[in-house]
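HUMAN: Ready with one sample?

ASSISTANT:
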Amino acid sequence: MSNTLIEHITHPAVRIGLTATQLPITLAGRVLGEQDNEQWPPALAVEGMQATVIQAVGSLLHDDQLTVKGRLLAEKVDRLRAAEVLEAEAEAKIEHADAERAAREETAARQREQAAAAAKEKKAAAARRARDQKRAAQEKAEAETRAAEERRRAAEQRVEAQERTARTEAIATERQALAKKKAAATAARKAAADDARIKATNQARKS
């Protein structure tokens, strides 16, 4: 059988066989909406197998056309797989970058919350100190007022005591003076009576 006849028989057979192996994947791709996705892994797997088969048949039959076709298909599969790997790596880098950005944003948000909480606590502490200082100042002022009032009352009590003592002493002095005056008057009356009796006695003796 000549090479031309073999080619005429082999090429359609290869095409039919490849079409038969690809048909289920094509149908599945249509069902799953992947018919236009050249990087769909099942489709790549089938094309990779087809490339291997085509190259093997071309090598077996010494058919350069099949060999080149199989090699080109294999190179296409390799490029698509490499592109898929690069896309996966790019997506992984994007996901990693997104995760790092999210972590940074979370850290920044947590730091802002901590700073806000610290500022709030600082403000509250300052307010407490201000209240404590105001209360201490009020208590001190009230204590000083009470002390001043106590000193005033004590001074008034001392003045009242001194006035009472002075009045008591004045009354005592006045009473003593009255007693002395009364005693002097009594003594004068007694002396006058004594003089009258003496005079009366003397006159009676003379007569």
Q: What stands out?
A: Residues 3-94 form one domain.
